């Protein structure tokens, strides 16, 4: 491609990218309905990407997997599947795949909100237009109702739970795994979609993926303690928080505290009854709401 044709192609490319950061487990497949609805809500003018957490899905066949981030601009990361590694993984993705002059909209869910705040702190040069933090687990995770249950399971008994999971997955024939996925989905009252939820579940029914998600969860319980109020204050005009009214991972008390500390912030409490895992049942409704929130920001580009 010549320099003239490159310039013409660049001028027709969208000026803004929307990047979606997942919760834990960080499986992009579960977010596909939300992404499709959001893309449509933005009139198909802006690319919408989602990034799985490192180690939470198996690499496609034939893909070479290295123990590093394979990025010359990345910091040396020993713990690639922990919280720090996940932050660097997302920053490496932006360096490698998004032109530096592009503006960004970051949308985080659950622990993805913590990752976004870390990205904003570590890479202040990023041209972030808006960061939407949905059901944000950015503080006191171990003290939350679900955290009190998760701490013994993820921090004390994690290795003991690996063995039965390993035995079941080792003995279960590949041909029966889709059936197991459907049973688990029905048991959790999740729509059984052979094109979306079943493949996403199958991706996760691999011992390395389960272990990496549990390991990340243990770090969340230990390390996500104090809210990063400094980063929030520095970026308050770019941030929108959306808390659940009955969220066992970030109770209303956390909403009230951050609202009191940042009265000037765009901090909202859900009035629609959406659960923490909204992607399982309310993708369309959430996407409609998010696309509406973004209209003013996109209009000013």
From TrEMBL:
UniProt keyword annotations, A-Z: Endoplasmic reticulum, Hydrolase, Lipid droplet
InterPro entries: AB_hydrolase_fold, LDAH
Superkingdom, natural source: Eukaryota
Any single GO CC term annotated in Swiss-Prot or TrEMBL for this entry: lipid droplet
Catalysed reaction, written as an equation: a cholesterol ester + H2O = cholesterol + a fatty acid + H(+)
EC number: 3.1.1.13
A Pfam family the protein falls into: LIDHydrolase
Single GO biological process annotation from the record: cholesterol homeostasis
GO molecular function annotation: sterol ester esterase activity
Localization per record: Endoplasmic reticulum; Lipid droplet
Residue runs in coiled coils: none
Family affiliation: Belongs to the AB hydrolase superfamily. LDAH family.
PANTHER family cross-referenced by the UniProt entry: LIPASE, LIPID DROPLET-ASSOCIATED HYDROLASE
Protein name: Lipid droplet-associated hydrolase
Organism: Ornithorhynchus anatinus (Duckbill platypus)
Lineage: Eukaryota, Metazoa, Chordata, Craniata, Vertebrata
């Amino acid at each position: 491609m010549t320099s003239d044709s490159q310039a013409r192609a660049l001028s027709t490319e969208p000026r803004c990218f929307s990047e979606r950061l997942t919760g834990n487990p960080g499986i992009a497949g579960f977010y596909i309905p939300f992404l499709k609805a959001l893309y449509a809500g933005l009139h198909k003018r802006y690319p919408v990407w989602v990034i799985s957490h490192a180690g939470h899905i198996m690499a496609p066949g034939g893909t070479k997997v290295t123990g590093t981030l394979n990025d010359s601009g990345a910091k040396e990361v020993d713990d690639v599947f922990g919280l720090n590694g996940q932050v660097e993984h997302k920053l490496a993705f932006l360096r490698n795949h998004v032109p530096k002059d592009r503006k960004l909209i970051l949308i985080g869910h659950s622990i993805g909100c913590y990752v976004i705040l870390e990205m904003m702190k570590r890479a202040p040069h990023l041209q972030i237009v808006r960061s939407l933090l949905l059901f944000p687990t950015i503080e006191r995770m171990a003290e939350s109702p679900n955290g009190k249950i998760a701490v013994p399971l993820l921090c004390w008994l994690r290795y003991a739970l690996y063995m039965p999971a390993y035995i079941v997955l080792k003995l279960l024939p590949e041909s029966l795994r889709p059936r197991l996925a459907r049973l688990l989905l029905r048991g959790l009252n999740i729509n059984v979609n052979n094109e979306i939820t079943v493949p996403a579940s199958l991706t996760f029914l691999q011992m390395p993926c389960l272990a990496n998600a549990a390991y990340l969860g243990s770090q969340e319980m230990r390390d996500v303690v104090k809210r990063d109020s400094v980063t929030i204050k520095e970026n308050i005009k770019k941030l929108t928080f959306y808390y659940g009214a009955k969220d066992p991972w970030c109770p209303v008390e956390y909403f009230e505290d951050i609202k009191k500390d940042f009265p000037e912030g765009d901090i909202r409490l859900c009035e629609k009854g959406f659960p923490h895992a909204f992607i399982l049942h309310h993708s369309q409704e959430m996407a409609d709401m998010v696309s509406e929130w973004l209209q003013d920001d996109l209009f000013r580009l």
